[in-house]
């Protein structure tokens, strides 16, 4: 969408074709921009989600376009959109994501040979990730190869890994390992309605917009709040989605590298046969569960570090850089009884979550994973730090594409 729009801007540079498609001023109308952007978006979405083509064609029709439009003039907005989309698609088909199944037969499947050390029933190494048995199926590490995907602005997925404090090891730093587990137990045992709501609101699990999409929704709020033009929106969403994209690569590279245990594994290992306090009462440590829905007790990939934290930190930092301020001013009202973990009971009455700043929202997103028993404190704090670094580097590159000279 950005590359299609860039053809109609006096300064912007397309990511794949540079300024080669730049149109004369007389053609740089809102109508042409919208048409080129729409056809570019439709082509890319259809490539990613081919079974949804009819939906995308329907949207084009609703916007007043003919999905089968095949203009002869190369400079027609339809051709501009399709041309840049083809260039981006060709580039990303071979970026290490394995979208086409050329690196391993099943699209997006792992080609690195990852195998977990632990099994659902046996903790061989308490420092390593343990797949769980959920709904009769053993979890599989989702895209362990993602750290190898070609980033937007990062030099590689591991660029900032040496900035992270390595996670606590039961073998080498048992005291720290036990303390981080104790912290999660303490939080889980004293969850208020507000903290439970925070844990669930930010969860963004399966069949939701997911954590990256959550920050796109926040960007939509900012667009409406600040009365954005089309030009400004194109830049905003280009900047924030590329920053979060790089955050995903940095996060998954670390997850694969450390292959670190989730709190549920550490607590089961440390407290088996011991009674511990939990959000649902006193339980045997071997049966402790995070504050999550039973069908998704903990995500199917290693802990270190928190994806929510890095996505949110990079999103918040980008919104700060774009708007020139940390001010957010957004809120959401969660109705009583809304909980999926404790439906009809939590919260006992409506709860309002309000974020005065982007940073405050990002911090709450990180804390939500501690309240939910999904991450350790270090997994949260370290990835908040990396998220900000990733965002600043992505922002510097985005400014160059915008045509901003420093």
Features:
46% helix, globular, 406 residues, 12 helices, Vanadium-containing Chloroperoxidase, domain 2
Could you explain how this protein is built, in words?
- This protein is mainly alpha-helical.
- The chain has twelve helices and six strands.
- The strands form three sheets. It has a two-stranded antiparallel ribbon.
- The longest helix has 29 residues, at 230-258.
Summed up:
This protein is mainly alpha-helical. 46% of the residues lie in helices and 7% in strands. It has two domains: 1-92, no CATH class; 107-402, Orthogonal Bundle (Vanadium-containing Chloroperoxidase, domain 2), CATH 1.10.606.20.
Domains (count): 2
Rg measurement, Å: 23 Å
Biggest sheet overview: 2 strands, antiparallel
Poorly predicted sequence stretches spanning 5 or more consecutive residues: none
Secondary structure class reads mainly alpha
Give the SSE map.
Layout: H1 2-6, H2 30-48, H3 53-62, H4 77-92, E1 133-134, E2 137-138, H5 174-189, H6 193-201, H7 210-225, H8 230-258, H9 263-271, E3 275-278, E4 281-284, H10 307-323, E5 327-334, E6 351-357, H11 358-371, H12 377-402
Antiparallel strand pairs: 1-2, 3-4, 5-6
């Amino acid at each position: 969408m950005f590359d299609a729009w860039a053809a109609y801007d006096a300064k912007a540079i397309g990511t794949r074709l540079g300024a080669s498609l730049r149109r004369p001023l007389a053609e740089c109308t809102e109508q042409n921009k919208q048409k080129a952007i729409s056809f570019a978006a439709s082509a890319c979405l259809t490539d990613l989600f081919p079974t949804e083509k009819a939906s995308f064609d329907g949207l084009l029709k609703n916007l007043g376009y003919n999905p089968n439009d095949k203009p002869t003039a190369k400079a027609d907005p339809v051709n501009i959109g399709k041309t840049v989309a083809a260039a981006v698609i060709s580039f990303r088909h071979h970026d290490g994501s394995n979208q086409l199944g050329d690196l391993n037969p099943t699209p997006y499947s792992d080609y690195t040979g990852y195998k977990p050390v632990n099994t659902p029933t046996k903790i061989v190494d308490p420092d390593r990730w343990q797949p769980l048995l959920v709904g009769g199926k053993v979890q599989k590490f989702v895209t362990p190869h993602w750290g190898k995907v070609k980033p937007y602005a990062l030099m590689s997925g591991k660029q900032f890994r040496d900035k992270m404090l390595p996670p606590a090891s039961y073998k080498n730093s048992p005291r720290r390992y036990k303390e981080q587990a104790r912290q999660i137990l303490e939080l889980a045992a004293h969850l208020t309605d507000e903290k439970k709501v925070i844990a669930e609101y930010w969860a963004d699990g399966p069949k939701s917009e997911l954590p990256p999409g959550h920050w796109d929704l926040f960007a939509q709020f900012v667009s409406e709040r600040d009365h954005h033009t089309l030009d400004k929106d194109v830049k905003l969403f280009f900047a924030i989605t590329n920053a979060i994209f790089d955050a995903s690569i940095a996060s998954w590279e670390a997850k694969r590298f450390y292959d670190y245990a989730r709190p549920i594994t550490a607590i089961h290992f440390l407290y088996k046969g011991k009674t511990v306090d939990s959000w649902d009462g006193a339980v045997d440590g071997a049966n402790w569960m995070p504050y999550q829905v039973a069908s998704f007790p903990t995500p199917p990939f290693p802990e270190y570090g928190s994806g929510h934290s890095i996505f949110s930190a990079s999103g918040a930092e980008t919104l700060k850089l774009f708007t020139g301020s940390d001010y957010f001013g957004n809120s959401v009202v969660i109705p009583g009884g809304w909980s999926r973990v404790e439906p009809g009971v939590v919260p006992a009455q409506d709860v309002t979550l309000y974020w005065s700043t982007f940073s405050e929202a990002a911090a709450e997103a990180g804390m939500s994973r501690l309240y939910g028993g999904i991450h350790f404190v270090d997994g949260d704090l370290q990835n908040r730090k990396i998220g900000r670094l990733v965002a600043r580097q992505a922002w510097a590159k985005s400014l160059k594409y915008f045509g901003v000279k420093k």
